[in-house]
Specification:
This protein is mainly alpha-helical. It has one domain. Helix content is about 70%, strand content about 0%. It has a two-stranded antiparallel sheet with strand order 1-2. A hairpin with a 3-residue loop joins strand 1 and strand 2. Helix 2 packs antiparallel against helix 13, helix 5 runs antiparallel to helix 6 and helix 6 packs across helix 14. The longest helix has about 35 residues.
Length: about 375
């Protein structure tokens, strides 16, 4: 049998089938959340998500077929592309749905460079750490690694997009730990982050500060509290088995705002109950575990770190998205992977699965 055939024999069909199934389920939930809408933007959400899903599936299989090690030779170009896209946002950026962030570029279709950067930084940082893992405790290596992610993260923060900036920080920390960073160094970075919080607070937009304040003191902002309250009512009203698809009163009655993006988990809980919501979390959890399996069987540190980076943003976004629906975390605007409406977000998520598959297909037998 050919070498290519041997590679495809290692293809993780469970991982891909779960990704496809969750994406299809996401389209159905977006349909439920926008059913009966009169706003053209909302009406177009489902067909747009389907188009992006088809494109994302092609990218996923394309990246799986591509040997990920080839990307290691062009990481300077990938890093330059990432920075260029983020800089272009400041000159040609357009506002997203909420009108709070000018983080999109219109190139015939709207794209969100920060989502593309999320995937590119996984590849470029993985290559940097793989080349320097023997010197990971060296102060100069740590400084260069911090600068490597600090430039794009800073450009995203001033868009302003606090959610994706937090994703970058978590990916950096997990990938640094996976490359051998000692716990004492992690503790030092944690202490430095706490010291930097007052500075970060002063650089945040007013609406971002209000979201955090309303999380700590829910009654301080009645408008923001309304969204959180309706999300809690939606989740609670779902009970054990839910109200049924497209039958949730909070969803159908339009009491739940931004239900197709930020609060889509509340729609799931209302319509499919505790059982359905738990099933979604378990399925996403299995996806993350399959990606982490790729890190375990990867033939080299570069592939292993790619899988750790993909698993990191999948886990963090899932935890934050569900957490803000349950009033456990501030509202950040992060999408629920595979499920929430958002074309570029879906593209980066499925492209990440494609990269993980590329590593798994070329991995060691265990």
């Amino acid at each position: 049998m050919s070498r290519a055939g041997n590679i495809w024999r290692n293809f993780d069909w469970l991982l891909v089938l779960l990704a496809i199934g969750l994406t299809v389920f996401g389209v159905l939930m977006i349909r439920s959340a926008t059913l009966g809408a009169i706003d053209p933007e909302l009406i177009n959400r489902v067909p747009n998500q389907i188009r992006y899903a088809i494109l994302s599936f092609l990218v996923m299989f394309g990246l799986a077929a591509l040997d990920y090690r080839l990307l290691g030779g062009i990481t300077p170009w990938l890093y330059g592309l990432m920075v260029m896209l983020l800089v272009l946002v400041f000159f040609f950026g357009v506002e997203g749905d909420g009108g709070l962030t000018r983080g999109w570029l219109n190139i015939g279709i709207p794209i969100q460079p920060s989502e593309i950067a999320k995937l590119l930084i996984v590849v470029t940082l993985a290559q940097f750490l793989a080349r320097n893992y023997e010197k990971i405790g060296d102060l100069r290596t740590l400084a260069r690694a911090a600068l490597h992610i600090g430039v794009p993260a800073g450009l995203i923060f001033i868009q302003p997009d606090l959610g994706i900036t937090a994703v970058f920080a978590v990916m950096w920390l997990i990938m640094m730990w996976a490359s051998g960073l000692k716990l004492r160094h992690i503790a030092i970075f944690g202490f430095a982050f706490v010291l930097a919080l007052p500075f970060v607070w002063t650089r945040m937009e007013v609406y971002q500060q209000q979201r955090i304040v309303s999380f700590v003191f829910p009654q301080a902002d009645p408008d923001a509290y309304y969204n959180i309250l309706q999300a809690n009512i939606s989740i609670g009203s779902g009970g054990l088995l839910g109200k049924g698809y497209a039958q949730g009163p909070q969803n159908v009655g339009r009491f739940l705002r931004v239900r197709h993006t930020d609060f889509i988990f509340s729609v799931i809980a209302e319509e499919f109950g505790f059982v359905g919501a738990t099933a979604v979390m378990i399925l996403i959890g299995i996806v993350i575990l399959r990606v982490l399996r790729g890190a375990r069987i990867a033939p080299d540190p570069f592939g292993s770190l790619i899988c750790y980076g993909v698993a990191a943003f999948l886990f963090f976004q899932t935890a934050v998205s569900i957490g803000m629906n349950l009033s456990l975390m501030p509202v950040t605007g992060l999408t629920l992977p595979f499920i929430s409406s958002g074309g570029t977000s879906l593209l980066s998520t499925l492209a990440g699965i494609g990269l993980a598959e590329s590593v798994i297909m070329r991995g060691r037998r265990v």
